[in-house]
Amino acid sequence: MEDHSQFRLLSERRFLPFFVTQFAGAFNDNLFKNALLLLVTYTAGGLFGLSADVVVNLAAMLFILPFFLFSAIAGQVADRYEKSAVIRWIKFAEVVIMGVAAVGLWFGWYEMLFLLLFLTGVQSAFFGPVKYAILPQALKDSELVGGNALVEMGTFVAILVGTLMAGVMMKAPVPGPVIAVAVALLAVAGLIAALRIPKAEAAAPDLKIRFRPLQETWKLMAIARDNHNVFLSILAISWFWFLGAAYLTQFPNFAKTHLMGDETVVTILLAIFTIGIAAGSIACERLSGHKIELGIVPIGSLGLSFFGIDLYFNMPEQPIPSDWWMIITDPHYRQVAIDLLAIGIFGGLFIVPLYAYVQREASPDTRARVIAALNIFNALFMVISALLAMLMLGVIGLSIPEFFLVLSIMNLIVAGFVYQQVPDFALRFVIWVLSHTVYRVSHHHLDRIPEEGPALLVCNHVSYMDALVIAGAVRRPVRFVMDHNIFATPIMGSFFRLAKTIPIGPKSKVPEIYEAAFNRIDEELAAGHLVCIFPEGKLTKDGEVDTFKSGVDMILQRRPVTVVPMALRGLWGSFFSHCGGPAFSHLPKRFWSRIHLLADYPVAPEEASATMLENKVKVLRGSQP
């Protein structure tokens, strides 16, 4: 049996060297940045005549500034050249930067180290676009979610380990030389791993590189806006980094002021939050069924808000001095740890499908530049997050738990806006919930549906849930043709309009709706979409496949396209079927159903007819209604 676990990728050369490279890079960035801040804070006591607090914020600015300045050029480079070579050059630059940094750490040349922190940000800015653009070339579509989950898990674990190791190394008798050796060795390890990354050909080899940071950044924004859904997904990802930066930045003061914790409490909060994101990222693979599933993104956003609000209401009323062990074991503090863990888990569920979706939907020849635009937005949102925190905590005077509460409410508002703008999110959410609660759906041979181009899907009609079951199983968006009366119901009507369903009715009663339906079907097929019809024209009243009407022949006469016969088994007897009386008028015979959706081989348009397709669907469905 084929191993579908994403961890299988860690044993394959097309992924493992890349994973090690990105892990070592993220580890090194955070080790160097945090070690430098600790050295300046506790050893130098300041720098350039500035206080330690100002220097810490200066360091954060120096590291993030290159993402604004160089991401556009980095995206061009990643699209223009073979990607494994780009990664090797970036890693070679890291070896040089960290080699010089090792000397500076050894001798305590802190002013020089701040320049090198900027250069570290530069090489990270160049690595970002190629890091995500190479994945769709190295992995299959069915592996994209798993691959992204591993990358996100690796990144956050590397951030955690790098941060913790900086603190551990600071306890050495002479920390500078110890940190110097560590950053140099990690840079070399990243380069060695990069040498093993397989080739990934250039996506746009004729692209002209333009070294105009500001102009190219604006051009990059235009490229990102070309696909509305991709652009809003980019904004949603950046919103996650806005929230993540807000939480992570406040942990030290949150632990000290509101939990009366020592330094180990900051560490355990960071560890809990990071482990949660890693766990949520890994869970995406199983929850999404090895495909890019937008339906779990709303679950992630709802969880972020729910547990953020829960955190506010579960803060200890009278905190006592605490350490890391009390955070885990004391009932007054344990709920805080559970809430932070859950926020991390739902953050992972939120972020991984979005990254995979952007990678898949972005045009291959501009993919790296779209990722570069994403990095710019991420950096911008993190800066805005810091400014908002300064405003709310410093000027308005909110407490940190109150700030977290405001963020949770803002998250609901932002999520509502995104899902209203991109109905696919809300649609896939409903489908995912149904297919993982009321129904257990097994798919058979759905790979027979063309991956691109127009096709007509024909299926038996058992219940009002048929379209949702099919939509949840088929990877491509599907336009369904359904009885116009459904659109008169307030909830169902709104939902099916959201799904771009095509209403149809009898020619004798509603000729205008009948004619408009066939025009819409033709337009959707002409645009290269999948259209699904139920040729029986109504729900079955006895569980058997009824006679296929001639509408399918009319569609194919106007637009000859490939036809894929499909069949549903297991929905007869549900609350949404006519078993035992009209749908919705009787109690269901069972509260969950095991459903099978089967696809037959595609049929050429010149061979297809209503009678032939009816027979194929009957054979496909078999004797089980």
Automatic annotation (TrEMBL):
SUPFAM superfamilies: Glycerol-3-phosphate (1)-acyltransferase (SSF69593), MFS general substrate transporter (SSF103473). InterPro entries: MFS (IPR011701), MFS_trans_sf (IPR036259), Plipid/glycerol_acylTrfase (IPR002123). Keywords: Cell membrane, Membrane, Transmembrane, Transmembrane helix, Transport. The chain crosses the membrane at residues 35-52, 58-77, 89-107, 113-135, 147-170, 176-195, 229-249, 264-284, 296-315, 335-358, 370-397, 403-419. Its main location: membrane. It is found in: Cell membrane. GO terms for cellular component: plasma membrane. One of its GO terms (molecular function) is acyltransferase activity. Residues 455-571 form the Phospholipid/glycerol acyltransferase domain. The keyword Cytoplasm does not apply. It comes from the Bacteria. It is a multi-pass membrane protein. This is MFS transporter.
